[in-house]
Design a protein that fits this description.
mainly beta, about 110 residues
């Protein structure tokens, strides 16, 4: 059973950058699609980025051109580089392995 732990969240001013990390343990993630979601209180969780086992990526329109997802299978980690952050990006950010396993999330606050 895989465990996912996100880190890298924090408070940043609008226009700033953050890099989120998600490390997996208990299973290797190299064969799996991984994703980043975010959630604001009282709203549904929103999928914002995904990466396939071959490294191909996809993004929600809301983050396209600003966020970049990557993976390092040797470290069993995925990342989300976030730039040009806006107040609308404020949320709890989760990573997921194939939409079946989820981390606890890391908070991003943009002011």
């Amino acid at each position: 059973h895989v465990q996912l732990v996100e880190s890298g969240g924090g408070s940043v001013q609008a226009g700033g950058s953050l890099r989120l990390s998600c490390v997996a343990s208990g299973d290797t993630i190299g064969r799996y699609c991984m994703g980043w979601f975010r959630q604001i209180p009282d709203k549904e969780r929103e999928g914002i980025a995904g990466i396939e086992s071959d490294g191909s990526t996809s993004y929600a329109d809301s983050v396209k051109g600003r966020f970049t997802m990557s993976r390092d299978n040797t470290k069993n980690e995925v990342y989300l580089q976030m730039t040009s952050l806006k107040s609308d990006d404020t949320a709890l950010y989760y990573c997921t392995k194939s939409f079946a396993s989820w981390g606890q999330g890391t908070q991003v606050t943009v002011s």
